[in-house]
Amino acid sequence: IESPFGPNITSLESLLTTILNVLLVIAVPIIVFFIIFAGFTYVTAQGNPEKIKTATRSLTYAIIGGVLILGGVAISEIIASVVESFRN
After folding, report:
1. Is the distance from CB of 83 to CB of 13 less than 8 angstroms?
2. Which pLDDT tens digits describe the chain residue by residue (88 residues)?
3. Chain center to CA of 56
4. Dihedral sign (CA 7, 8, 13, 16)
């Protein structure tokens, strides 16, 4: 039976890797946008505690999201390399 996902995706491992790569391509610009947004909010806060709090929260969540996404990709690569070493 031919795979409906195309010739490059032949296993569950390759499907998950492809999904993570697509997620990474989508998430990185969003994370960069929120970091820039937080910086812009800091600059335009002019000492307003609410805006500073919003900027801090935006920056914190952007960094946490980036770490989670990059961590997920790193963990998947580690698992893939371990599985590959057991296959050989």
Report:
1. yes
2. 666 667 777 777 778 888 888 889 999 999 999 999 999 999 999 989 999 999 999 999 999 999 998 898 888 888 888 888 888 7
3. 20
4. negative
Q: Counting beta carbons within 10 angstroms of the beta carbon of residue 38, is it exposed (0 to 12), middle (13 to 18) or buried (19 or more)?
A: buried
Residue 73, judged by CB atoms within 10 A of its CB (0-12, 13-18, 19+), counts as middle
- Cα-to-chain-centroid distance, residue 86: 28
| Tokens of residue 3, six digits | 């795979």
DSSP string, 10-76: -SHHHHHHHHHHHHHHHHHHHHHHHHHHHHHHHHHHTT-HHHHHHHHHHHHHHHHHHHHHHHHHHHH
- Classify residue 8 by its DSSP letter: T
